[in-house]
Design brief:
single chain; 262 residues; alpha/beta; Metallo-beta-lactamase, Chain A; six-stranded mixed β-sheet; 6 helices; globular
């Protein structure tokens, strides 16, 4: 088996290269979110410089994870796997390659199996469309190296259960979001998101080999800057027992992960 190369493009967009299968997560190459939240760093890989993509996995409908403009700009025909309610929306909007995937379903793209589970996150795009709130997380595995991509989620036993689908092997790479909220907002925030501390806690629960944090260094948010969460994570890692297994990739940087030695 080939090693897996993981590239952080920005926010929740990562390129997972399994050698002969390449998967793009939550593609967003937009200059801003909505009309007023700017992108602070360009995509780590320009869209025109992407390699051939075999599949796209979408976690939910929030604008920072689901960019209609980005999906339309990518080559047509790439299967876009998403929660059923989101896939139907994409199809109605002209993205014919949208594919509905249910929690517990297994997708196979070449030699890569993609396992699906529900995330703990209300993924509705607008305040009035909570019926469109389904959110997924995905475990990608080629039999040698496995990568867990949670999208947005709070702490949930479903993440651990998803990781356990490949027992007795362990998850090699946990791609976990890190967020920041001011103290007055933190309780509500943590009902659907991970703080930096939560991400480290979930990393422990998953017993994964490597943690790569995402959801930072890309967009400004209403109550936080693009680098607030990563500053908190760096501070937490000082003297942390697992500091050496947390790999912080600035946008555009990659990590190659080899099959573990047994």
């Amino acid at each position: 088996m080939s090693p897996v190369r993981i590239t952080y493009i920005g926010h929740a967009t990562l390129l997972l290269d399994f050698g002969n299968v390449r998967v793009l997560t939550d593609p967003n190459f937009d200059d801003k979110l909505g009309f007023f939240l700017p992108r602070v760093t360009p995509p780590g890989v320009k869209m025109a410089e992407l390699p051939h993509i075999d599949a796209i996995v979408l976690t939910h409908a929030h604008a920072d994870h689901l960019s209609f403009a980005s999906l339309r700009a990518l080559p047509s025909g790439i299967p876009v796997y998403a929660p059923p309610v989101v896939a139907r929306w994409l199809a109605r909007d002209g993205i014919a390659s949208a594919r509905a995937v249910h929690p517990g379903q297994i997708i196979r793209v070449g030699n890569v199996s993609i396992y699906t589970a529900p995330a703990r996150h209300v993924g509705a795009r607008y305040g009035i469309d909570r019926w469109r709130g389904a959110a997924h997380m995905y475990l990608l595995d080629d039999g040698a190296v496995s990568v867990l991509f949670t999208g947005d989620t709070a702490l949930t036993p479903d993440a651990v259960a998803l990781a356990e689908t490949i027992l007795p092997r362990r998850v090699d790479v946990a791609l976990l979001p890190i967020g920041f909220a001011p103290r007055w907002k933190e309780f509500l925030f943590r009902r659907g998101h991970l703080t930096a501390g939560d991400a480290l806690s979930l990393f422990d629960q998953l017993n994964a080999r490597i943690l790569i944090p995402f959801h930072w260094g890309t967009f400004r948010h209403v109550t936080s800057g693009a680098y607030d969460a990563i500053r908190v994570l760096r501070a937490l890692l000082e003297g942390h027992a697992k500091a050496s297994t947390v790999k912080i990739l600035p946008p555009g940087e990659s990590l190659t992960v080899d099959e573990p030695v047994t």
